[in-house]
Write a structure and sequence with these properties.
alpha/beta, Arc Repressor Mutant, subunit A, 4 domains, seven-stranded mixed sheet, three-stranded antiparallel sheet, 12 strands, 48% helix, globular
Length: 423
C-alpha cells in the first residue's frame, strides 16, 4: 500500500506534470463514445415504442456516455461540487417550501413572488434557485423566473421530500467519516454496529436505531424514506418475478391460517402492495415491528393485522406459510443476522414454511451503483452490508437454512431469496 501521508509519493506521480494535466482534461473513454451513441439511438427507439426495460437500459447507456465524455477533472468537480451542493440546495428548497409553492401554481413564478411566499432574502433566493435549476430540480423559464417539473412535484410531497433530511440526519456525516475510520482501523471490514463510521460521524455512543429513536421527527422522516425507496423498482410479487402461486395455492395452507408475516415490516407498504396485487390470496397477513413504527402505519388494508414484535425475541407466529424480511438483514453484520434468523427458524414448519428475503444480491461483475452505494450506506451506519450470492449462501447455511432459489427481476432491483429450514 502506498502511504499518502506526505512522506511517500502516490504511484500515479510516475506521470510527469504535463502528462497528468493532459489526461485530466481529456475524455475518460473516448474510444467508447461512438458505440455508446449508437446504443443510445437504438434504445431511444425502443423506449419510444414502449418496450419493457428500455428506459432503464437507456438510462444506463446515457450514464456511460456521460462518463466516457467527461474529463477526469470534470468528474472530480461533479463529486466535489455538484453532488454535495446540489443536495444542500434541494434540502434548503424543501425547508423553504419552494417545491410546494412552484407545484401549487401552474405557471412560471417570478423570484420576487417566490421570495414573498417563502419569506426569504431575495439575493439568497436567487443563489438557491440558480443552483436548483443547474441540477434540474426546477426549470428556469426566464430571468429570475421558475416553474416546476416532475422532480419538483415529487419532492413537494413530504413522503418523498423526507429522504433529504433523513440522509442529513442519519447518514451523510457517517459516510464522510468512512475514509478516516477505515484508516484508523487498518482497513478492516466493519463488523460492530456500535463501533462503525456512524458513531464517529455523529460523535455518539448510540447505535443507529437507538440514535433514531431519540428523535421522533427524524424517525418519522426515516419511515417515510423506507416507504418510497422501493417505488419504481421491480417487485417480487409482480408477474414474471416470483411465482406467488407457490405460496397461495390452497394445498399450501395449514391450521395456522397465516400466509405472510412481514417481520420488521415498517409501515406495511409491502403487505399493502401484496393485498392490492393479490386480493384473493387466502390467509392472514401480519405486520410486525416496534410499537412506535406501527403507530405510524396508517392507510393499511383492513385485512392486515398489526403485531408489536422485537425480532430478536421468540417469534409468536408459528408455522406460517412465509416469513418475509425486506431490507432487514443488510442493517446488521453476520453474527447479529444469525440472532434475527434463529427465532424464525424455530417458528417455521419444515417442508412447509418459507423464509423470503427481499434484498440486493450483489453480482460478481457489473454491480449497479444503487446496490454498491447502498452497501456503503450500510457500512457507514450499521457495519452492515449488501451481500453477494456467496455471502448469502454462507450466512443462511450457518443459520440452518437452505436456499431453494434466488429470484431476480432485473439488474436494478432487489432479489427474492427463497429458503426452507434444514431439518
Amino acid at each position: 500500500m502506498v502511504e499518502l501521508n506526505g512522506t511517500s509519493a502516490p504511484a500515479s506521480d510516475s506521470h510527469t506534470g504535463t502528462q497528468i494535466d493532459q489526461i485530466a482534461v481529456s475524455p475518460t473513454a473516448p474510444d467508447q463514445v461512438a458505440n455508446l451513441a449508437q446504443t443510445i439511438a437504438s434504445l431511444s427507439k425502443a423506449f419510444t415504442a414502449g418496450e419493457a426495460g428500455a428506459r432503464l437500459q437507456l438510462l444506463e447507456a446515457a450514464d456511460s456516455l456521460v462518463s466516457a465524455l467527461e474529463t477526469p477533472r470534470e468528474t472530480i468537480l461533479r463529486y466535489c461540487w455538484r453532488n454535495p451542493t446540489g443536495f444542500a440546495a434541494i434540502e434548503t428548497g424543501i425547508n423553504l417550501g419552494i417545491f410546494r409553492y412552484l407545484s401549487d401554481h401552474d405557471r412560471p413564478i417570478p423570484i420576487a413572488e417566490l421570495a414573498t411566499a417563502t419569506a426569504s432574502d431575495i439575493v439568497l433566493l436567487q443563489r438557491i434557485m440558480k443552483q436548483l435549476n443547474a441540477v434540474h430540480a426546477v426549470t428556469e423559464t426566464g430571468r429570475d423566473e421558475y416553474t416546476s417539473n416532475n422532480f419538483t412535484r415529487t419532492v413537494a410531497n413530504t413522503r418523498y421530500a423526507d429522504a433529504f433530511p433523513t440522509i442529513t440526519g442519519t447518514t451523510s456525516p457517517a459516510i464522510t467519516a468512512i475514509p478516516a475510520f477505515l484508516r484508523q482501523t487498518q482497513y478492516q471490514n466493519p463488523t460492530n454496529g456500535l463501533a462503525c463510521p456512524f458513531q464517529q460521524g455523529f460523535n455518539t455512543k448510540y447505535s443507529f436505531f437507538d440514535f433514531l429513536s431519540r428523535d421522533p421527527t427524524l424517525s418519522a422522516q426515516f419511515n417515510n424514506l423506507m416507504s418510497v425507496y422501493h417505488q419504481g423498482r421491480a417487485s417480487w410479487m409482480d408477474p414474471g418475478f416470483y411465482p406467488v402461486e407457490r405460496l397461495t395455492h390452497p394445498s399450501n395452507h395449514t391450521d395456522s391460517g397465516i400466509l405472510i408475516v412481514d417481520v420488521g415490516g415498517g409501515k406495511g407498504h409491502d403487505l399493502n402492495e401484496f393485498r392490492a396485487k393479490w386480493p384473493s390470496a387466502r390467509g392472514r397477513l401480519i405486520l410486525q415491528d416496534q410499537p412506535g413504527v406501527l403507530a405510524e402505519a396508517t392507510g393499511l388494508h383492513e385485512s392486515i393485522e398489526r403485531m408489536p414484535h422485537d425480532f430478536f425475541t421468540e417469534q409468536p407466529c408459528k408455522g406460517s406459510r412465509a416469513y418475509f424480511l425486506h431490507s432487514v438483514l443488510h442493517d446488521w453484520p453476520d453474527d447479529t443476522c444469525l440472532k434475527i434468523l434463529a427465532p424464525l427458524r424455530a417458528a417455521m414448519t419444515p417442508g412447509y414454511s418459507r423464509l423470503l428475503i427481499n434484498e440486493n444480491v450483489i453480482p460478481d461483475r457489473g454491480a449497479h451503483w444503487q446496490a454498491t452505494g447502498l452497501d456503503w450506506v450500510m457500512m457507514a451506519d450499521f457495519a452492515g452490508a449488501e451481500r453477494t450470492e456467496a455471502q448469502w449462501r454462507e450466512l443462511l447455511t450457518r443459520a440452518g437454512f437452505r436456499i431453494l432459489k434466488i429470484w431476480t427481476g432485473d439488474a436494478w432491483s432487489e432479489s427474492l431469496i427463497e429458503c426452507e429450514v434444514v431439518e
